[in-house]
Amino acid sequence: MSVTAGGLLVAAPLFLLAWFLADAIWPEVLSSRALYSILYLALVGSVIGFAMYFYVLKHVEATRVALITLITPVTALLLGSLLNGESIG
């Protein structure tokens, strides 16, 4: 867990620096849907997701846990299609 936290502490400022150097602008208004999406990704996608992944990794064989990384993108595509009306393909 500390390796992941350390990586995020290094990566986040570098992403912000790259964003700043690319002359990106900060949006003046965020829709509630965008704000909820950001909060969901921060809480569920990062904090809870990593905690659950490492919990499962402690209790299940690593070969079985590796399947989670294969299932996650497919699940994200299906959820985006079903809940957000996104097209697949």
Features:
single chain, mainly alpha, 0% strand
Descriptive account of the structure:
The protein has 89 residues and is mainly alpha-helical. It has one domain (2-84). Helix content is 80%, strand content 0%. It is built from 3 helices and no strands. It is extended. It starts with a helix and ends in a 5-residue tail after the last helix. The model has no long low-confidence stretch (mean pLDDT 85).
Specify the biggest β-sheet. Answer: none
Mean pLDDT: 85
**Stretches with pLDDT under 50, minimum 5 residues:** none
Q: What structural category characterises the helix and strand content?
A: mainly alpha
Number of spatially distinct domains? 1
Q: Give the number of helices.
A: 3
- SS elements, strand count: 0
Head-to-tail CA distance between termini: 34 Å
Share of residues in strands = under 5%
Order of helices and strands: HHH
Task: Indicate the topology.
Blueprint: H1 2-21, H2 32-59, H3 62-84
Explain briefly what this protein structure is:
The chain is mainly α. It has helices at 2-21, 32-59, 62-84.
